[in-house]
Amino acid sequence: MKHYSVVLILLALAASAFIGCSNDDSGGPTAGDLTVTQTTPTDKAQDVNLNPLIQVWFNQALDEASVVWNCMYVEGAETQRLEYDEATHSICLFLRNQLEPDSTYRVVIERTISNADGDSMTSDAEFEFTTTATVDCQHLVDYFEPNDDILSATEIELDTYYTCLSSCGGDERMDFYKFTVESTAQIRAYARHTFSWGDTVDFEVNFLRTDGEYYHEIHSSLATNWAINNDFTFYPGTYWVEVGNPYDDGKLLVYYLVLTTRTPCEDDIYEDNDFIDEAAPISPGLYENLTGCVNDKDFFALEPTAGQTLTVTLSQVTDILAGRYIKILDPSGAEVAYEGFYGRQEPISTFWTATEAGTHYVCVRWHNYGIKYDLDIDLSD
Fold first, then answer.
1. How far lies 351's CA from each of 147, 281, 300, 317, 324, in Å?
2. Can you tell me the mean pLDDT for 359-367?
3. Confidence (pLDDT) at 19
4. Which residues pair with 128 in a beta bridge?
5. Cα(250)–Cα(135) distance, rounded to whole angstroms?
6. Cβ(207)–Cβ(214) below 8 Å
7. How far apart are CA 324 and CA 345, in angstroms?
8. Using CA atoms, how far apart are residues 56 and 243, in angstroms rounded to an integer?
9. Distance CA 273, CA 248 (A)
10. Kind of pairing between the strands at 36-40 and 72-74
11. Picking from 22-26, 135-139, 313-317, which range would have the lowest pLDDT averaged per residue?
12. Tell me: the pLDDT tens digits for 67-120?
């Protein structure tokens, strides 16, 4: 009995000494400490894409104020931004530029990151990964794929830069993004070409509504580090923007995208009439002090009888150099008359003699911001 007592005492002392050591600052983390639980890419991962999303999960909620610019970084690469997701206790790191092929990178998470109680990690955490040696479209797929149509569109925030995005040409390589406007605003979609195979690449940035109809399309052939932007004034709601190279299948395009909010154009009482199915019904007469917003189409509908001649005259009130056009469309939506002009206040006019009764449409478009104009509609036999 005495022998067993001595053994029990020795075991108790050993356990006491072990517990005391684990609480010492020189030891490893205890069960209650803030620690990294998971990473993407995983530690020692191979063949990682050249524009990866880097994400680190923690075992506890973080103090968001401790997630500052340099608390997590990739050695040898430049950070675009960090995002903390409270629901998953994770930090996402977005890179400014694509990584070099066949290279090993180390990710450092500094111990300054703390939990909601202000307790930090016991030491810095780190992991490393090696990028692919193959530079092709498959290995430059960005972290938002698949987002090749409206149904799979990635939801993005306004006034936020999204970097290391990529398109490899062809219809299936156009990238779709969804955004929500809380109050009426002009939205500028600014996309910069940062890398491509070849000196230039075709580039499109298009605004769409739910059914895929375009508010405005813009296309350009861009050299590296050149950019295009598309502007449109939106009412509150959810909309889509399409970015990429739809022409050259397999031709890589890397870009960054930001949707910035700007002061909205003050529309007239006939809005929202941006599409033919939203055309505002009007009668012959003079309509004064209407507003044309940049890239905006204004549709109007009226009902001539067969043989009547519809004459449309557009007069610019605002005294600036401006581009504008007017179109007349028949009941099928086909264009039957057109007149365009770039200048100051010279009026433009066009006409069409209806070959059939039914709804005809007038479309007015301005390429400048907030133009005041008068529209004169005449129907004669």
1. 44, 18, 15, 21, 16
2. 96
3. 27
4. 106
5. 12
6. yes
7. 11
8. 29
9. 34
10. unpaired
11. 22-26
12. 998 899 999 999 988 999 999 999 999 998 889 999 999 999 999 999 999 999
**Domain parsing of the chain, residue ranges:** 33-134, 138-262, 276-380
DSSP readout, 306-338?
TTPEEEEEEEE-S-S-EEEEEEEE-TTS-EEEE
pLDDT interval class at 370 (50, 70, 90): confident
- Name the pLDDT band for 30 (thresholds 50, 70, 90): low
Average pLDDT, integer, range 156-171: 88
Q: How many residues does the chain have?
A: 381
Task: Give yes or no for a contact between 215 and 137, defined as CB atoms under 8 angstroms apart.
Answer: no
Structurally, what CATH architecture does the domain formed by 276-380 represent?
Answer: Sandwich (2.60)
Q: In this structure, which CATH number among 1.20.1070.10, 2.60.40.1220, 1.10.10.10, 2.40.160.60 belongs to the domain 33-134? A: 2.60.40.1220
Contact by Cβ (8 Å): 178, 239: yes
Summarize the chain as % helix, strand, coil (round to 5): 10, 50, 45
Q: Say which DSSP state 21 is in.
A: H
DSSP assigned state of 120: B
Residue 103's closest CA among 56, 46, 164, 43? 46
Number of CB atoms found within 10 A of residue 108's CB: 15
Residue 93's identity, in one-letter code, is L
- Of 189, 195, 159, 193, nearest to 176 by C-alpha is 189
Query: Confidence band (pLDDT; 50, 70, 90) for 173?
Result: confident
- Joined tokens for residue 260: 């910035």
Output DSSP code: residue 123.
S
**Cα-based torsion angle of the residue sequence 41, 42, 45, 51 in order, rounded to the nearest 10 degrees:** 0
Q: What CATH code would you report for 138-262?
A: 2.60.120.380
CA 315/CA 317 separation, integer angstroms: 6
